[in-house]
Amino acid sequence: MEKILDIITAKMQKAFEEAGYDASFGRVTVSNRPDLCEYQCNGALSAAKQYKCAPIQIAKNVAEKLDAADYSMVDAVMPGFINLKLSDAFLQNYLEEMRTAENFGVVKSGEGKTIVVDYGGPNVAKPLHIGHLRSAIIGESIKRLYKFFGYNTIGDIHLGDWGLQMGLIITELQERQPDLCYFDPGYTGEYPAEPPFTLAELEEIYPAASAKKKVDEAFAEKAHVATFELQSGRPGYRAIWQHIMKLSVADMTRIYDNLDVHFESWLGESDADPFIPAMVEDFKARGLAVQSEGAWVIPVAEETDKKEVPPCILVKSDGSAIYATTDLATMVQRMQDFKPDEMFYITDGRQSLHFEQVFRAAKKGGIVPADFPLTHLGFGTMNGKDGKPFKTRDGGVMRLEQLIADMTEFVRAKVVENKIVEESEVEATTAKIALAALKYGDLSNQPTKNYVFDMDKFAAFEGNTGPYILYTIVRIKSILAKYGAWEHLPIQAPANPYAKDLMLAITKFGPSMETALKSAAPNLVCAYIYELAGCVNKFYHETRILTEENEELKAGYIALIGLAKRILETCIGILGFSAPEKM
Ligand code: ARG
After folding, report:
1. Which of 206, 367, 368, 405 has the smallest count of CB within 10 Å of its CB?
2. Which of the listed residues 116, 119, 123, 269 should we mutate to test ligand 1's pocket, taking the one with most ligand atoms within 8 A of CB?
3. 4-86: CATH topology
4. CA 340 to centroid of ligand 1, rounded, Å
5. Cα–Cα distance between 137 and 353 in angstroms, integer?
6. Is 437 strand, coil or helix?
7. Strand 295-298, strand 290-292: pairing
8. In what order do the strands lie in the sheet with 152-156?
9. What is the pTM of this model?
10. Domain coordinates of the chain in residue numbers?
11. Which tens digit of pLDDT belongs to each residue from 351-390?
């Protein structure tokens, strides 16, 4: 569907032309004085210079040419603005078209295109912690936003499953249980199907090994060797690795599922490994990688750089691959397997330089075409109320699971206390509200900014919060349920000013989603639904909906809130949460 601004701009341009002026002066914008009008055109002011005529005269001439049926108000005011209010009929027709169109008439600009969204990055054998929360929440939402615009989206978890941490675990395990068959080089039998450790043990082994590495040089050296042997395919080590992967991935899946975060691709750094040798050779052969202090690096600085961009390290002096190597090889793998048109990365903002280097190197090496859209969104830190990075009470890193549990417990108490639902539904309703509180609390902030995690604020049922949005949807659902079948009811002309405000807010849906996509800003989706929910609630308070005696009028109210509900639900779907039936 064409956007309202485009429709009325085209009509304004025609009016300029018919009044004898150049059409290009007819650009219409959303009013910056909503108390006076909804839209405005300032073109007469610029036209005045060219036509040597008072701007107000031009504005009046043009206003006369506009089709009165489109507007309830056309006002040429000093010094030469044309102020506009849309007519009831215009709004009614536009909303009815939105109501019946696929995607509410929003053009699927991404149809036929594939985008890989890389927003996981957890390291296996380490529990997910709150550092993984923002990438999961923001990434899932950005992926869903792209999907709304018709893109084929591939969320890629990009597991950290290949580095030194694996060698550390293997070495520590060997010290603890040296007699396991995995460590016997002469072993030729099948390896056991069950792992020699539980998940809890594994989560204890890793930090222990990591601490030992720092103080015990011999241990560190052994871990390096083990990593190398694992990567070279030593069967016993590969078998341990499989065990670690299985336990860890099952646990991650469970936690991500709880967050309603789902990855289409569960590949990891290990899957990029086979692509490294040929890629490195290619960079070397074409002279794109040069030797520097024993390492191979790709110079990526550009003349226009305002700050220094160091070379991208491809191979370390000891011959090993590093973080950047893996990211480049992963691109090779993705281009081959997924044939994407874009790639989007969501990580902590502190990785910005890494991605700048990797993107430049990828383009230099032709891994992706020079104009291929590669985007890195670096998010800010989640802080505690003290303004410092969020910590547990004893100063440790908080597990993601713990954070979710705390929020759930907090919300459950409210649900129980306010007797919101029957006992059998407490858990399901609590889970939905808690997720909305957590995600909206994060997503309503600009992703690049730091924010303060404030449970009281996020879980409040009033204010700019997830639960408030859910509450609005639930309120509409309950009215609709009492009314009966409503899906077929057509939109009517606004019956009161609150209906008109609500209708105007609905028309902003498409443009708001487009800006959100363009700026990769789920916070704009939040801002939009907050405004829309405000209009719904205002309308609800000022209008007798179910008690309206005029059936025709009532049907119009119902159609309008029905459309608002569908749009609100679509938006929270993009944000990655959903509404309960009762609240
Ligand atoms: N595993 C990495 C870490 O723990 C994050 C990976 C982010 N994604 C990427 N493609 N580099 O820091």
Report:
1. 405
2. 123
3. Gyrase A; domain 2 (3.30.1360)
4. 20
5. 22
6. helix
7. antiparallel
8. 152-156, 114-118, 342-348, 374-379
9. 0.95
10. 4-86, 164-258
11. 999 999 999 999 999 999 999 999 999 999 999 999 988 8
